[in-house]
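EI: anyone free to look at a 848-residue chain?
SC: sure, send it
EI:
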Amino acid sequence: MISKLKNTDIIKEVKPHYNFSYAKGVVFSQDLYDLSDEELLEMCDDKIWTFVKEKAAIEKAQAEHLSIGQAKRLLFSRPQYSDVLKNGNSIKNQPIKFNPNPKLQPSPSELEVHSTSQTSSQKASSSPLQGTPKASQKASQAAILPDLEHNLAAICLQETKLGNVIPNCGHNFTFYKSPPPVGERAHGGTKSERLVTAEVERTDFGVGSETSKPSLGLSSGDLDEHQGGRPCHSDWSNIMRHAERHNKSSIHLSAVSDALAFKHICDGKNLSIKQSLSKAYAEQVARNRAALVSIVKIICLCGKQGIALRGKTDSRSNFMALLELRSEHDTVLREHLKLASKNSQYISHRIQNEIISIIGSQIRETILTPCREAKYFSVIVDETTDISVKEQVALVVLYVTSDGSRHEEFVTFEETADTTGETLYKLICNKLEDFGLDKNKVVGLGFDGASNMSGKIKGVQARIVNDVPTVEYVHCRAHCLNLAITHTCKETSVRNLYSVVGEIVKFINASAKRLHIYTSQNEDADRLKKFCATRWGCHEETLGVFLNNIENIIDTLHFRENDTDPSTAAKAGAFFMSIHCFQFLTTLVIVHHYLNLTKPLSMALQSKTNNLIKATQECKELVEMLKSKQSDGSSFEHLYRKATQLAADLQVDEKHPRSICRQKNRENAPSTTSAEFFERNLHNPFLDHLIVQLNERICGSTNRVRAEMLLPQNLASLSEEDIAVIKEAYSPFIRLLDLDAEVERWKWRHKDGGPLKLEECIQSTRYLYPNLNNIFTVLLTMPVSTASAERSFSTLKWLKSYLRSTMASDRLSALALLHIHQDVAINYENVLHSFDSSGHRRIAFAFQ
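SC: here you go
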């Protein structure tokens, strides 16, 4: 039975019930495994004893086919256990001899603790509080000294209250801040008890004579029992001498030293009990932690690189392959995999998921902590369908720190059953609440133009604005640019161009033979790229590759006209006739040129560091440049010369479509030459349409953008009307009465002008201009586009492929956080701590 207690697993299970005697044996380096059964039992309190007794009885009953009661009687009928069977608490009161550690000897001041010794037979009858009314006892108990730092014996009393066993030196402690109350002295007890109480009231044993200092009441016990003296209660004339002698006795000094050692363990000055058992335990804990850190690092590597952890089977997975590779150079990991049992290696897919979840939570907390501390933040949301045909919603937060740095950070993927405005509204609000983000601090919403998101009545933005009136919805500027280009390209000639180019690219890339013919014409030829249905900013690149390799394309189509397959030959001939045309070449040159001018704006709108002021200024600059080209005829002449040169190289005649009568299905402005025809019917309409769309969709700014007039470079043109608009737009965030004074001081400070970025303005106004600081912070916090959410969709397609289509939402979000936020450092110590505290572990990590 006792050997079961010595087993490591049982010791681990009863760890929360270790008593003080057990701790004392550990602190004084007494080897637990060298103790006898009786000594070991003496170190256990009733809870451990009950556990051991029940476990041993069950094993005995199962082995010999007995009842539990019969097994207990057979096991615990020996004389040394009779007291335990009668009273489980009696073990606590058995004194145990330990050699005190010299390093833990108490100081002289700590030894000034006074007590009286009593025999075990007198403990039940000799207390000075016995026989007194209950009210008096409560009053006396309330007077117990609470100051644990100044009275070491009070520490023992506190541990007794907590259920711990105090080292028994044969004395009974009673502590008073002042002498016992009068009511208590007047009632109950024997003559000797009342005499002791009276003696205590007028005597302080070595601590001091003032009653305000801590004093120790002595019960009528036998102080000299352990030293061979006669009972103290029969020799009251020598009580001071006996008390002083007891204070210097080895038993008392050992008890005080033990109490000090216990206090050091509680304060964390000494190692924990299990770590003090042996050096081997501490080394085993270190090896366990090192092995698990290696496993965590492999999981982090797979997550950051987007590598699938699991394969067709666990034994053939990428995770196991990397684990074996690392174990070749990591001896600790190799021993762990070799010696640990199968259920304690912690490499199963369930453990992988648990560690991935812990790492994802740590990364998310790293992102959200500064967001919670920021003054304001914005929410960017977009949705898409994954490979398993499930709707995934990407949530991104945008915030500005106190130093003016702007952050757009992906937070999570959430699966949703439908995409109605009400459902998405509830999803966003619930996630903000789960992440501990205050919805009232939201100042901006970044969505696309879908009706369920941007609707003014039932859309998500309308519902959130109804809850938080300070929120302002911003239609994604990158989407606005795409829409502007889309509407511009609806011109008949441009629409035909897109259709022909798209079909030819598809025709060549769909066949290995045709693609080989195309590349064999020129080894340096770029691979043809197809159009993206949603990213119109990339259409310029598709048209550019097509224009630069048009000779190879024509040769390929001409070669396939003689193909043995009639369908292939017919398509190749039709495509050849479509592009071997001057109108097609002229349209290609003009459209590519102007789309190329919009590419920098498209890239800027997708940048994380961009803001509304920059986006608006860049769009206005582009519009001004396009207007100058519209009024200047030299721009078209340059493009037309380029088109004629390309036609000459391809042996295409320069001509324009004939016009017999008024045309209804294409542009037919009067013209006398081909150049005049293409200028009036292609160049000017396309350019006009593009300018109008950019002005309407991007350059149109909200009232909050008027705060750009507060930038130092714009203060000279700041008007009263601008200030009035700014007050109205930012009234929830500023004190209107103080704004005028701050603006006046701000203008005086920058009277010499000088450009400052919005981020620099936030730093400059941090302390002396609180209202201006709030205005600049809100303006910088406003979203520009949903590009960050759409970039996460690329990660989604990479992680949740057709081979990993059953991945759960929590695992997907955690892996996406690892892959997107690769620059976030992982605290492996915290990962191990969270892993150990999340459930019962079969190997020790010593975090609990």
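EI: The chain has 38 helices and nine strands.
SC: 👍
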